[in-house]
């Protein structure tokens, strides 16, 4: 089975990004990512563990409620203001006739579009630069244009455009795995955490502590001199950021978002369990996590194309946590440094000299 090591390895899911950053958009550093479900929708669950979640339509995913399938998931910057982006996704879906049918006319549909936000306000230098319905529509249209199984851009794109993790540049990361039965499990994250993805003692990524010694031919644990220099550069970046827009916010506000997906047939309670266990993967890769100013939220999607044996469910849960850990690592390695009016956010690769490859 050929894979992209991405969320789109679950057949039928498409991912689209839209963002605004610098260049001809001074003061902007934010964006929106849409995961578009197959036309029939997907079974979904959600689990929020941070102290400050910003969400929309998550109550609809409670297994006690009537909604059986959702039609898209929105991950977006802009804090609570960014929830406006889901409106643009809904309007596009309605035009396609995709949603819960509520009347005799096929056009009488209500799309179900859960959404969650991360905090990136001011990181581009302008407080009022945040995603809206127009950006949400751009992201879902981008998703619809992709081919099945298409690669997913990572790093400073979509909801990861203004993301930061422990002072380093965060971003979008994605990964997948295939169980022995052929069942696909995948994850996508918008990594934006108050905690760190880096062990302060060594400079190694927490998410790789159980991996082998090498990545792309280089040690996963940087040398002592390189680590000392990286810490000095990061300290300088934080001092510069203190004088810029993002640096005035205390305590720091963040939130990491994720979607974990499978092609297995799950019930709604099973999807909710998958979302919950996937948080274990986030906790392996970011420390501390689930703080009072993080709104960490994980969605789970099941396209239900493959039957799931009862004895396989535990393996699927474990794989969901594993792929989310790897997605965090890939987000850190894909991120590019930002030095703008909202702050200085160096990338891990620029600090530690990692090669450009991050698969």
Question: Could you explain the architecture of this structure?
Answer:
With 359 residues, the chain is of the alpha+beta class. The chain has helices at residues 85-95, 133-145, 224-242, 268-285, 313-334, 348-352; strands at 14-21, 29-36, 43-48, 55-56, 72-76, 100-101, 109-110, 115-117, 164-165, 168-169, 171-178, 184-191, 214-215, 218-219, 257-264, 297-306, 338-340, 343-345. It has a five-stranded mixed β-sheet with strand order 1-2-5-8-4, covered by helices on one side. It has a five-stranded mixed β-sheet with strand order 3-16-15-12-11. Helix 1 packs across helix 2 and helix 4 (268-285) crosses helix 5. The relative contact order is 0.21.
Set out the fold topology.
Blueprint: E1 14-21, E2 29-36, E3 43-48, E4 55-56, E5 72-76, H1 85-95, E6 100-101, E7 109-110, E8 115-117, H2 133-145, E9 164-165, E10 168-169, E11 171-178, E12 184-191, E13 214-215, E14 218-219, H3 224-242, E15 257-264, H4 268-285, E16 297-306, H5 313-334, E17 338-340, E18 343-345, H6 348-352
Parallel strand pairs: 5-8, 15-16
Antiparallel strand pairs: 1-2, 2-5, 3-16, 4-8, 6-7, 9-10, 11-12, 12-15, 13-14, 17-18
Attribute tags:
359 residues; alpha+beta; five-stranded mixed β-sheet; 6 helices; 18 strands; 25% helix; 23% strand; disordered C terminus
Mean pLDDT over the full residue set: 92
Distance between the ends = 17 Å
Order of helices and strands: EEEEEHEEEHEEEEEEHEHEHEEH
- Helical content band: 10-25%
Largest sheet: 5 strands, mixed
* Number of DSSP-assigned strands: 18
The poorly predicted ranges are: 355-359
Q: Beta fraction of the residues?
A: 15-25%
């Amino acid at each position: 089975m050929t894979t992209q090591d991405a969320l789109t390895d679950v057949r039928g899911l498409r991912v689209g990004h839209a963002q605004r950053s610098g260049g001809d958009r001074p003061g902007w550093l934010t964006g929106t990512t849409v995961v578009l479900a197959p036309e029939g929708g997907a079974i979904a669950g959600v689990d929020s563990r941070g102290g400050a979640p910003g969400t929309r339509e998550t109550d609809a995913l409670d297994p006690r409620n009537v909604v059986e399938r959702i039609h898209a998931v929105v991950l977006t910057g802009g804090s609570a203001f960014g929830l406006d982006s889901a409106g643009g996704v809904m309007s596009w879906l309605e035009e396609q006739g995709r949603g819960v049918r509520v009347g005799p006319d096929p056009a009488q549909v209500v799309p179900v579009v859960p959404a969650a936000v991360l905090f990136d306000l001011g990181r581009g230098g302008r407080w009022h630069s945040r995603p809206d319905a127009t950006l949400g529509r751009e992201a879902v249209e981008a998703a619809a244009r992709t081919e099945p199984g298409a690669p997913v851009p990572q790093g400073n794109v979509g909801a990861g455009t203004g993301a930061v993790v422990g002072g380093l540049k965060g971003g979008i990361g994605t990964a997948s795995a295939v169980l022995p039965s052929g069942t696909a499990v995948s994850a996508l994250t918008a990594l934006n955490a108050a905690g760190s993805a880096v062990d302060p003692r060594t400079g190694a990524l927490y998410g790789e502590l159980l991996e082998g010694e090498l990545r792309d031919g280089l040690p996963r644990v940087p040398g002592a001199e390189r680590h000392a220099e990286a810490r000095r550069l990061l300290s300088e970046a934080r001092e510069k950021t203190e004088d810029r827009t993002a640096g005035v916010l205390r305590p720091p506000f963040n939130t990491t978002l994720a979607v974990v997906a499978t092609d297995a047939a799950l019930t709604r309670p099973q999807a909710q369990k998958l979302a919950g266990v996937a948080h274990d993967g986030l906790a392996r890769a970011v420390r501390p996590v689930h703080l009072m100013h993080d709104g960490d939220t994980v969605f789970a999607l099941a396209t239900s194309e493959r039957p799931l044996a009862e004895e396989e469910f535990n393996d699927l849960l474990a794989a969901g946590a594993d792929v989310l850990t790897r997605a965090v690592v890939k987000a850190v390695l894909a991120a590019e440094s930002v030095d703008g009016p909202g702050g200085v956010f160096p990338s891990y690769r620029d600090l530690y000299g990692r090669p450009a490859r991050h698969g």
